[in-house]
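Figure-free illustration: sequence to structure, shown twice.
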Amino acid sequence: MNVLVGTDHHVDMEVRSIAAQIVEEEGTYLALDLLNSGNVAFLPQISAILSTEQGEFIERVNFELPEEMTQVLPQQVQHVGALTSLLEPGTYDLEVEINHRGLEILAEKHRIVVTN
């Protein structure tokens, strides 16, 4: 149960780090470390658009929170991951979107490097 006191509530999240690693014969694993930088616990929906450096769309990625996760507490760091199609080693763009109850909390673009 959450009890909110006062009116100064901020739902906010930061991407602390991104990693990409090829998993042989499975795909490419993308990992995000996120920080709930707001002052309210919430359960984010996290997705991203993966594209080439030239802007060619590759795929939409949905990141999964652990099943037992019901919320991310303020100042808590949460690791999320997703397995995508197999990518060649190289540099890609990842547009991360974080939403909560249909509202956009964060939208930012990151350059990632995929390694073996």
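We now fold a second protein in the same way, so the two outputs can be compared directly.
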Amino acid sequence: MARGSKKDYMVTPATPRIDWRKLLLPFLFIMVLPSVLAILADFWLGSLPFITIAAIVLCFPTATILVMKTALREMDRVIAEVAPPVPEEAALPETGLPESEVAAESS
């Protein structure tokens, strides 16, 4: 191989990964931060544990739903990068079945 050829400088593409920062931000700002602020408010107002319970009842399910939606969106993105493209409908016969199945059904 000649020095300086094109193969010497080829860069392998990075593997698709889930962006964990997109999962961490809703978790921190919707669950952890309000829970800590509720605990501090309870101590300050002397109403321990009522504000904390209310914050946990509201924030934990909300954070769970948002983190799960974000995780599913990230998984869809990764799968779209990794999975082969779906064949076009024009490439399939009129029956919508692959050629081997069409031949098996007709015999």
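Summary for the second example: The chain has a mean pLDDT of 80.
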